[in-house]
Amino acid sequence: MARTKATARKGPEGREYRENMKTPEGRKRDQENKKKKHEAKKAAKAAQQQSGSPEPALTNNGEKDKKQNGLEQDKEAEKSMQLDSTIAASGANESSTNANAGSRVLTGLENTHNITTMSIISSSHIQQKVTRALDILSEYPAVPPAKPKVVMLYSKAAVASKMITIAEIVKREIAKAGGKWYQYNKLNKVVEEKVEKAGSAKKEKSTSGNVPMAENGDDGSGKESEEEFETMKTPFERAIEGKPKIRAIPVMTIYLSRVRIDSLRRDHTEQTNGLERLVR
Predict the structure, then answer these.
(1) Where is there biased composition of kind Basic residues (predicted)?
(2) Alpha carbon of 36 to those of 3, 13, 49, 116: distances in Å?
(3) Domain ranges within the chain, ordered by starting residue
């Protein structure tokens, strides 16, 4: 850059520059010319920006950013959908077994009563279940032609504590309003396929891998250990080989009603606050 300026100043075109640099006025005039050229370049750039010539590059960059943001949002949406599907699948499996249990405990009671079944699983919200049960049992006394309403809560043994909490809150709220409640408990079982955990297989491998050392430091890798052998399975093990393992899971059912249910009273223990009100 410096060489091109020097060559330009040496030729006939640089005569004006050389003449100006001889006097202070000329040097001042040269600086003013530089400022004018610089301002003219700025004005030209501003005019280009206003006319919209560099905007396509910006729009292209903006479109790239939008595409990248869209791809990231799509990936996040796919991840959330996968999580929701796994959660829904686990909840569906748990609720399906509970639904099977609920269908089995209905023994002719639906013919005389209007039963609302409520499945309690590990992800159930206590407040929502309590509110729904109170809304159902609040319509009391029932009109004579209509069937009395009953809330049937059922759950597996692992979630029975949550179901009992819901039942106790419902009974407490009914008693606060001066109403009567009747409770009947029932135990049942549901048969389902047993799923083996991966940890049990690892434990078996780890225990089988521990080889005791002999007293003389030999690991027992002699001629006798070279011969591999396999234990024979019993006839019972061969008969059940390849068949899924089945286990019985206990299920608890709680019936809540505002009226006495004679059919359940004969087979199960009755709990009520009606006797307490009579004694008082």
Answers:
(1) 34-44
(2) 23, 19, 20, 89
(3) 20-49, 85-195+245-279
Q: Is the pTM of this model over 0.70?
A: no
Residues paired with 250 in a beta bridge: 189
Task: With CA atoms as reference, report the closest residue to 254 among 124, 129, 173, 150.
Answer: 150
Architecture of domain 85-195+245-279: 2-Layer Sandwich (3.30)
pLDDT digits over 206-248, tens only? 555 554 554 545 555 555 555 566 677 777 776 667 677 778 8
> Which residues are paired to 191 by β-bridges?
248
DSSP state of 11: S
Residue 46's alpha-carbon distances to 49, 51, 61, in angstroms, are 5, 9, 21
The span from the CA of 134 to the CA of 126, in Å, is 12
Q: Which two tokens stand for residue 95?
A: 């609720």
pLDDT in tens, 30-86: 788 888 888 888 888 887 777 655 444 444 555 555 556 656 656 555 655 554 454
DSSP labels, 45-104: HHHHHHHTSSHHHHHHHHHHHHHHHHHHHHHHHHHHHHHHHHHHHHHHHHHHHHHHHHHH
Q: Is 265 helix (H, G, I), strand (E, B) or coil?
A: helix
Six token digits for residue 186 = 């029932």
What gap in Å lies between CA 116 and CA 77, rounded to an integer?
36
140 CB contacts (<8 Å, ≥6 apart)?
149, 179, 258, 259
**CA atoms of 259 and 166, how far apart (whole Å):** 19
Q: pLDDT digits over 95-123, tens only?
A: 455 545 444 455 568 788 889 999 999 99
Instruction: List Cβ neighbours of 149 (8 Å cut-off, separation of 6 or more).
Output: 113, 114, 115, 116, 136, 137, 139, 140, 142, 257, 258
pLDDT per residue as tens digits for the range 184-200 = 999 888 877 776 665 55
